[in-house]
Automatic annotation (TrEMBL):
It holds the Pfam family Phosphorylase. Its cofactor is pyridoxal 5'-phosphate. This is Alpha-1,4 glucan phosphorylase. GO terms for molecular function: 1,4-alpha-oligoglucan phosphorylase activity. It is an enzyme of class 2 (transferase). Its EC number is 2.4.1.1. It comes from Rhizobium paknamense. It comes from the Bacteria. PANTHER family: GLYCOGEN PHOSPHORYLASE, GLYCOGEN PHOSPHORYLASE, LIVER FORM. Keywords: Carbohydrate metabolism, Glycosyltransferase, Pyridoxal phosphate, Transferase. SUPFAM superfamilies: UDP-Glycosyltransferase/glycogen phosphorylase. Phosphorylase is an important allosteric enzyme in carbohydrate metabolism. Enzymes from different sources differ in their regulatory mechanisms and in their natural substrates. However, all known phosphorylases share catalytic and structural properties. Allosteric enzyme that catalyzes the rate-limiting step in glycogen catabolism, the phosphorolytic cleavage of glycogen to produce glucose-1-phosphate, and plays a central role in maintaining cellular and organismal glucose homeostasis.
Length: 820
């Protein structure tokens, strides 16, 4: 009789060998037995999938080892809740962090396959939009790198935001089909599935000991199913997990209805459930759109919290020690409903009394704020919130009562201050304030740059800061140097290794030792050659995608980010029009050849942002086809901005545009990526630009325009943009050309409303900062002509950006907030 083996004594699989010969054999084996293809007829996408499987096998070894170690130590875990994770392509990231890049390349070469070709076929994961999602991705990689046991929680979007195409210069939104052929990186976890409810009502029950219980009876339920993706830390020392939720119906098809001939109605519940995880940020201009967004947010928050509590209790912990074993970080207000949901789970499901549950909740949650725009702090109409989440509405009122009474009794708050901190905004339509809920329900609230954090205390959370003065703290954002230097800029990485050794690969702050090379003419030449090669790569991409030829010897002036009025792509393109006028009017001057490159997506319902994209494309069409410019100026809007496109554009930039209205950009991380790769920044003293100036030196960054304090003063005292415009010849001529239809002959009034807005209110200070911005550009031209000075400054930017590693940021979160 065979003796059974205890699960704890089960043998572990042998770690995979990673020499090129073994890797080549495994790739063939995967191609044959996992994909079912003979190598003789395999297509590039087959080779890609087979290679991913082979890399994935080596990740799994480390992944399981990391999980076992965390369970054995019963270590505190960090849970990062974010509606976005803009992780991009994963194969190069994984190979690089595991130290397998050259071995895989050699293995594939022996099989007649080009790694670069198949790597370019991997789709970008459509799980985010911009900086918020990319920050979450950098943080996940850094948490693994600095050995923090962590889970990321989000939504497994089928289509993500959208795929951007241009039709006659207008943005067109198409579905992003990144999951069309499956995702070889993910693992479905059938055992991790949870019911999520909506609607219905709440019953109050009284037990035999007079204990009151509240029972929520939802009228709708869906299933949240888990899909796990491993996130590899540097050198593969730890592998963490990104768990994404997919919505599934409880009854996928109503057979009675289907057999009765109602084929569409039979799938109604299935379609309703699946709509939850189809699209990132569904337009919320309609009541239906608002409801879908709130459903999405509650869906992923509830599933994540149920999963967190299950894992916590499964290890023999108690609910009262939740804050000692669990740290949950809310990335912006999107997961703020988690505060009410954790209270519901603790009180209604696990029987914890309200006051104890509130202390547990505050001890567990921390909240990162990313905006000073009041309209960007989410709020929901009370009727919608109450109809969709009736028990949570009760808990919001209960939390509000507790905190408002505390404010009145302990701090003697006035009626105005009470109204400001209340979870219910009663200034118009009654709305639930999610930013206030996140603040009240967290023990730590952090800003993402020094300036942003101080402004947060003075503006959006001034009264809550007065009530809880010890909660707000700063954690300046960072980027992972693995993705944004080692992987996206291998030529620069090789040059740095040759000059200063490999230490910066493990500790980005050792890049400081590059300082001494800024005055070395031979090194400057090598640095410039790397930049030239990267510009040629971008030029080839633009030529192949758009048929536009670029001169790599020109200055590449790049602005890539979400299209929004406060980020001021409009200021950039207006200055471009003014420069166009000057080049034509003064051909005798020595103009610096310049390529203005833009990329970014506008929210589908954001009219002015989409109009700015159209303006950029209209201006590009005129300038690029005008022989009088003599090739001195080109304008290009590159469609469908994503991580993979950024990985080509960032290393190619000479000049990085970080020109948001001062006081409105929380941090920015694109500014860090560009500077790390040797671009000079032209920008305002906004967000992390302030700290970047302090680190790289004010002589190595080009700062212009009003400060946040000056912007606030101008707005308070009254802004007269018309007078400013009329006093600036270049600005008034550029605006007149745009408004009169010079760039839109098919519709001469197309941009008149956009320009009228600048004359009449100019909230984003485009007119107010124009002259300073134009002068800064002409100063930049002057600097460009001194190539030795330019390259020295570029080298110093790279050398002094190590502090902006997300490893440093995560270590600060760990020490000050999570205590993991």
């Amino acid at each position: 009789m065979t003796q059974s083996i205890s699960k704890t004594d089960l043998p572990l699989p042998s770690p995979r060998v990673s020499d090129p010969q073994a890797l080549a054999a495994e790739i063939i084996e995967r191609l044959t037995y996992s994909i079912g293809k003979d190598a003789k007829v395999a297509q590039p996408h087959d080779w890609l999938t087979a290679t991913i499987y082979v890399v994935r096998d080596r990740i799994i070894d480390k992944w399981m080892e990391s999980t076992r170690a965390t369970y054995a130590a019963n270590a505190k875990r960090v849970y990062y809740l974010s509606l976005e994770f803009l992780i991009g392509r994963l194969m190069r990231d994984a190979m690089s962090n595991l130290g397998l890049m050259e071995e895989i390349r050699e293995a594939l070469t022996s099989l007649g396959v080009d790694l670069a070709v198949i790597a370019g076929l991997e789709p970008d994961a459509a799980l985010g939009n911009g900086g918020l999602g990319r920050l979450a991705a950098c943080f996940m990689e850094s948490m693994a790198t600095v050995n923090i046991p962590a889970y990321g929680y989000g939504i497994r979007y089928v289509h993500g935001l959208f795929r951007q195409q241009m039709a006659d210069g207008w943005q067109v939104e198409l579905p992003e089909t990144w999951l069309a052929h499956g995702n070889p990186w993910e693992f479905e976890r059938r055992e991790s599935a949870y019911e999520i409810g909506f609607g219905g009502g709440v019953e109050t029950l009284t037990g035999s000991n007079e204990e009151v219980r509240h029972v929520w009876k939802p009228s709708e339920r869906v299933i949240a199913a888990a899909y796990d993706t491993p996130i590899v830390g540097w050198r593969g020392e730890r592998i963490n997990t990104l768990r994404l939720w997919s919505a599934q119906p409880i009854d996928p098809i109503l057979l009675d209805a289907f057999n009765a001939g109602d084929h569409i109605g039979a799938l109604r519940e299935s379609n309703k459930a699946e709509s939850l995880t189809r699209v990132l940020y569904p337009a919320d201009a309609t009541p239906a759109g608002q409801e879908l967004r709130l459903r999405q947010e509650y869906f992923f928050c509830s599933a994540s919290l149920q999963d967190i509590l299950r894992r916590h209790l499964q290890q023999g912990n108690t609910l009262t020690d939740l804050p000692e074993k669990v740290a949950i970080q809310l990335n912006d207000t999107h997961p703020a409903v988690s505060v009410a949901e954790l209270m519901r789970l603790l009180t209604d499901i696990h029987g914890v009394d309200f006051d104890t549950a509130w202390e547990i909740t505050k001890g567990t949650f921390s909240y990162t704020n990313h905006t000073l725009l009041p309209e960007a702090l989410e709020s929901w109409p009370v009727p919608l919130f109450e109809r969709l989440l009736p028990r949570h509405m009760q808990l919001v009122y209960a939390i509000n009562a507790k905190c408002l009474v505390e404010a009145r009794k302990q701090k003697n708050f006035s009626d105005r201050e009470i109204a400001a901190i209340s979870l219910i905004d009663e200034s118009g339509e009654r709305r639930v304030r999610m930013g206030n809920l996140a603040f009240m329900g967290s023990h730590s609230i952090n800003g993402v740059s020094a300036l942003h954090t101080e402004l947060m205390k003075e503006t959006v959370f001034a009264d809550l800061h007065k009530l809880y003065p010890d909660r707000i703290n700063n954690k300046t954002n960072g980027i992972t140097p693995r993705r944004w230097l080692l992987q996206c800029n291998p030529k620069l990485t090789s040059l740095l290794r040759e000059a200063i050794g490999d230490g910066f690969m493990d500790d980005a702050e050792t890049l400081k030792s590059l300082d001494g090379f800024a005055g070395d003419s031979a090194f400057r030449d090598k640095f410039a050659a790397v930049k030239r090669a990267n510009k040629e790569a971008l030029s080839n991409l633009v030529a192949s995608r758009m048929g536009i030829r670029l001169d790599p010897s020109a200055m590449f002036d790049i602005q890539i980010k979400r299209i929004h009025e406060y980020k001021r792509q409009l200021l950039n393109i207006i200055e471009t029009v003014a420069l166009y006028d000057q080049i034509r009017s003064h051909p005798e001057r020595d103009w610096v050849p310049r390529v203005k490159l833009f990329a970014g997506k506008a929210a589908p319902s954001y009219h002015n942002a989409k109009l700015i994209i159209k303006l950029i494309n209209d201006v590009a069409r005129v300038i690029n086809n005008d022989p009088s410019v003599r090739g001195l100026l080109k304008v290009v809007f590159v469609p469908n901005y994503n991580v993979s496109l950024a990985e080509v554009m960032v290393p190619a930039a000479d000049l990085s545009e970080q020109i948001s209205t001062a006081g409105m950009e929380a941090s920015g991380t694109g500014n860090m990526k560009f500077a790390l790769n040797g671009a000079l920044t032209i920008g305002t003293l906004d967000g992390a630009n302030v700290e970047m100036r302090d680190h790289v030196g004010e002589e190595n960054i080009i700062i212009f325009g009003m400060t946040a304090e000056q912007v606030g003063k101008v707005r308070a005292e009254g802004h007269n943009p018309r007078a400013i415009i009329e006093a600036s010849r270049e600005l008034s001529q550029a605006l007149s050309a745009i408004a009169s239809g010079v760039f839109s002959p098919d519709d001469r009034s197309r941009f008149s409303g956009l320009i009228d807005g600048l004359y009449n209110h100019d909230w984003f200070m485009v007119a107010a900062d124009f002259d300073a911005y134009a002068k800064a550009h002409r100063d930049t031209d002057q600097l460009w002509t001194d190539k030795a000075a330019w390259n020295s400054k570029a080298i110093l930017n790279t050398a002094r950006m190590g502090w902006f590693s997300s490893d440093r940021t995560i270590r600060q979160y760990t020490a000050d907030i999570w205590r993991a």
